Amino acid sequence: MTQMEMARKGIVSEEMKKVAEYEGVDVEEVRKKIAEGRAVLPKNKLHRVSKPMIVGEGFTVKVNANIGTSQGFSSLEEEKEKAKVAIEYGADSLMVLSTWGDLREIRRAIVEMSPVPVGSVPIYDSAVKSYQMKKNVVDFSEKDFFDMVIAHAEDGIDFMTIHVGVTKRVLERVKSSKRILKIVSRGGAIIAGWMIKNNKENPFYEHFDELLDIAKEYDITLSLGDGMRPGAVVDASDSQQFEELFVMGELVERAREKGVQVMLEGPGHVPLNEVEMNVKLMKKVGKGAPIFLLGPLPTDRATGYDHIACAIGGALAGYYGADFLCYVTPSEHISLPDVEDVREGVIASKIAAVVADVARGNRKAWELEKRMALARKNFDWETMFDLSLGKDIARKKYEERPYPDKGCSMCGPFCAIKIAEEFS
After folding, report:
1. Which of 162, 176, 161, 163 is nearest to 240 (CA)?
2. Rounded to whole angstroms, how far apart are CA atoms 266 and 279?
3. CA-to-CA separations, 363 to 23, 92, 112, 184, 367, in angstroms, rounded
4. Is the Cα dihedral 43, 47, 52, 53 positive or negative?
5. Minimal CB count within 10 Å: which of 85, 243, 280, 327?
6. What digits encode the pLDDT tens for the residues 268-302?
7. pLDDT of the residue at 129
8. At what angle do helices 168-176 and 186-198 cross, to 10 degrees?
């Protein structure tokens, strides 16, 4: 049985117990939300996840970290280090998005070492396989679509991005689109290219029941990928984007009927004033399904600092109901991220998630804020460092310019907290 099927039968799994403890809620709340499809607990039956996560309504906002190789930069050891650093700094999940090297070896190695859920995009493998055989990146068969899904399932992948909403009808919107950047999703572009070349419907859409059977067998959470997401703020919230969303909304119901966990992926580039509308529309169309957003980025001009733009958009999106934030690193749009980029990206998105949790009135988040306030009042530096999202960075800055008395070198003898303590 899948986590959803167990929840519907009133069965509480070990994973449900763990996430309830982490969230500080009654396990019955976890079970009910999973049963309704308003929350997902990604956990492939073949992956030992010691730190499971629940994504959805009423729970803390989660953060995903993308890692993966690219042509000219393919090192298993570096990917392992990226995974290690991402988890150390608070990533709730990883996605392995490699496009070079021995993809299966890399994927299996990350799944084996990861205590958190691991996601992937199976269609990448088909394109890479074709390219390495000196073919066009869209030269693969319908069978290849599902062979790759099965391979990823067998390797223990917990959730998969499947660009199932890129249908022939949706592609018609692309032809008449006034977008500057027509398609920016790699998976969406690969599938669209295959459909145009072969003059066929998207196999994932046409054979969606077959996809659901695979997902159900391994209890894979399907993340319905937004192949038509806008890649620039000037292209946001158009008919091309929303046409795909409405297709995905229909498929959410079909997945739930089969007992398969499902969430919706959302736009990456959205002006700040349109974030609320996008999130609420996704929640409505998806009938309360969890929302997985890339960013979102409210400006395209933060190149080199896109992780900061991402945190701004992510905090607002989380406040309005987004459940899962996919991080962006300082290298977004310009290069393959290194280990330091991964660290910076995770910290930025974790800050956004915490800001959203506090604004939403999450009890756990507020308890942690109160602990930090008391630690500051008491000059309890160890507790402050422990509660900080960038623990070692905070400690390093404190120790580089120390102050011999209470307080820190920012204010020295003029510390407001110390003065108030002495004279009040």
Report:
1. 176
2. 8
3. 9, 19, 33, 38, 6
4. negative
5. 280
6. 999 999 999 999 999 999 999 999 999 899 999 99
7. 86
8. 100
Q: Which amino acid is at 328?
A: V
Cα 337 from Cα 294, distance rounded (Å): 16
pTM over 0.85: yes
| Nearest CA among 262, 144, 266, 251 for reference residue 208 | 251
Total length of the chain: 424
Regions in the chain scoring below 70 on pLDDT: 424
- pLDDT at residue 173, rounded to an integer: 86
Is residue 296 within 8 A of residue 265, CB to CB? The reply is no
Q: How far is CA 63 from CA 9, 55, 90, 259, in A?
A: 29, 10, 8, 25
User: What pLDDT does residue 136 have?
Assistant: 85
Q: What is the pLDDT of residue 139?
A: 86
Amino acid present at 304 = G
Given a contact cutoff of 8 angstroms between Cβ atoms, the answer to whether 298 and 272 are in contact is yes
- Let me know: does 418 contact 406? Beta carbons within 8 Å: yes
One-letter-per-residue 3-state SS of the chain: CCHHHHHHCCCCCHHHHHHHHHHCCCHHHHHHHHHHCCEECCCCCCCCCCCCCCEECCCCCEEEEEECCECCECCHHHHHHHHHHHHHCCCCEEEECCCCCCHHHHHHHHHHHCCCCEEECCHHHHHHHHHHCCCCCCCCCHHHHHHHHHHHHHCCCCEEEECCCCCHHHHHHHHHCCCCCCCCCHHHHHHHHHHHHHCCCCHHHHCHHHHHHHHHHHCCEEEECCCCCCCCHHHCCCHHHHHHHHHHHHHHHHHHHCCCCEEEEECCECCHHHHHHHHHHHHHHCCCCCEEEECCECCCCCCCCHHHHHHHHHHHHHHCCCCEEECCCCCCCCCCCCHHHHHHHHHHHHHHHHHHHHHCCCHHHHHHHHHHHHHHHCCCHHHHHHHCCCHHHHHHHHHHCCCCCCCCCCCHHHCHHHHHHHHC
